[in-house]
Amino acid sequence: MSENAIETRIKSLPELPGVYQYFDVTGKIIYVGKAKNLKKRVTSYFTKNHDNAKTAILVKQIQDIRFIVVETELDALILENNLIKEYQPKYNIQLKDDKTFPWICIKNEPYPRIFSTRRIIKDGSTYYGPYPEAKVMYILLKLIKELFPLRSCKLDLKESKIKAGKFSVCLEYHIGNCLGPCAQKQSEQDYLESINQIKQLLKGNVNAVKTLLKRRMQESAENYDFEQAQVYKEKLSLLEGYQSKSTVVSTSIEALDVFTCLIIETTAYFNYLVIQHGAIIHAYTAEVNCYHDETQAEVIEKMIPKLKELYNSSSKEILVEEIPLVSENAYQFSIPLRGDKKQLLELSKRNIFYYQQEKKKRAFLQTPEKKYEDILNQMQQDLKLAEIPVHIECFDNSNFQGTDAVSACVVFKNAKASKADYRHFNVKTVEGPDDFATMKEVVFRRYSRLLNEEKPLPQLIVIDGGKGQLSAALEVLDELNLRGKIAIIGLAKRIEEVFYPGDTKAIILDRRSETLKVLQQLRDEAHRFGITHHRNKRSKSSIHSELDAIPGIGPKTKEKLLKDFKSVTRIKSAEQQELEKSIGLAAAKKILLWRG
Q: Using omega within 30 degrees of 0 as the cis cutoff, is the peptide bond preceding 130 cis?
């Protein structure tokens, strides 16, 4: 891939959490990385001077870039770990198996214990995680311990042994960390209710626990125990900011594949995920040609055998959106409706969407002229114009309580803002808030000047307003003999109505159309440009009105003062020597006299 092609690929990346993969000239993965913002992170590799020699060599070897979009930064971190272990890229620091992320285990036993572990044992226990940030896990375990007193011992608490009185309470009971189920001081039902609440918390369903914390916080405050109330408040904040559920890993899933597909005309965009031991180990998004009437089920039937062979996947279960009518019984297709499998299917669909968006952006960046040509042709068709509107001008008026009336004219060429051609107008002949008269003045000044200077005229004029403003502009075009030579329309703000000269009814464009988007950009840019000029004018008027109160100080002296001191505040605080240096001794004395 050429340097320009890589630059185009980077510009088209989404600004979302995910994992990026770098490939060398042979198509082999040489680096896997995570990012909170894919576009910013990948861009940094190609815009910085790298002190690290390894990174500099890596960048030189990058020939292709692929990405996988995920839900959160936490998901990106987990997926990065999985992919590094699977592919062992040359330029990644290898992660050893004993460095795998920890989990929270709820042990499958009477009166279950809760503890952290790095090993998953299939004995019916429930696991939550993994937790790349171990600090988060330990805070959760501490919170659980404080909220729900549970046993930490390894005693075999069979019902027969408890009833036989084989156990007695220990120090943990006396200090309040355990309620003594071993000595029948806590019922199994009460203990399991606490376990169920903890499971909800670890799944991300924190509402029940939050309600409990709020109640305890309120009780502490009512008892004037404000320190304890603050402790509960901090725990509540932690819960509200916590999200334990990951879409890229799940211990409830052993092995399966995920395949989603989107068919647009004769192109099928697809995403394929391979899940092993509850984690994504392969993710591939691409496109293939298909027949015009080919269904998603037929694409699945055609692609699945090839992808399973390519990625050496032996799992029989495949999650899909549409089950194909395959003749062989080699696979078990299913459409998940909820839970972890449904989230994996949604993740797969999102990656198709962002792949398609990236492709569109890349095509646009590579051939922007073609893109703008298509937009202009569409505008000509939608607005029923005689010519392609290569040059468009838009007018917007602005005033403040009937004073300081100004108008703005913005110019778009090839559907892009041409800021060097923008013009603003200080209204000269209109007194009071007369929008129609203002429009007549500025349109006349604009096009009489273009005619006198023999400069190119636009193919389309857009008037920000309804029928009244449009009629005012039309009178000017008649006066200048430009009626019929330049197309003109009015754009009303309320529901984006487009008015044509002589038509009693407006037309409403499709809100998704490129034509309406360009017209909205024109209108918004004219409004922004006009308001900016209006504010500057009011600000200068305010400054000058204050300096006008100084006897004997003329316009040139005021301009010199503002140029040297930038503001009236600085003029008021300037020393006599500074004033004399700027405007001379005589004028400086007048300033000092005015200041008192």
A: yes
State the DSSP code for 486. Answer: B
- Output the CA torsion 347→353→355→356 (10° steps): 170
Start-end ranges of CATH 3.30.420.340 in the chain? 377-538
Written out in words, the top-level CATH class of the domain with range 255-364 is alpha beta
Q: Report d(CA 44, CA 353) in Å as an integer.
A: 25
Q: How far is CA 481 from CA 432, 476, 477, 501, in A?
A: 29, 8, 6, 15
Stretch 123-152: mean pLDDT, rounded? Answer: 81
Report the CATH number of the 3-99 domain.
3.40.1440.10
**Taking 90 as the threshold, does the pLDDT of residue 70 lie above it?**
no
According to DSSP, residue 483 is labeled: B
How many other CB atoms are there within 10 angstroms of residue 447's CB atom? Answer: 22
User: For residue 155, with 0-12 CB atoms within 10 Å meaning exposed, 13-18 middle and 19 or more buried, which class applies?
Assistant: middle
Mean per-residue pLDDT, 186-199: 88
CATH 3.40.1440.10 domain span(s) along the chain: 3-99
Mean pLDDT of the region 20-33: 90
Q: What is the pLDDT of residue 283?
A: 86
Q: Which of these, 73, 47, 66, lies nearest to 362 by C-alpha position? A: 66
pLDDT of res. 388: 92
- Third-level CATH fold of 377-538: Nucleotidyltransferase; domain 5 (3.30.420)
Angle of the 339-366 helix axis to the 368-382 helix axis, nearest 10 = 90
Is pTM beyond 0.90? Reply is no
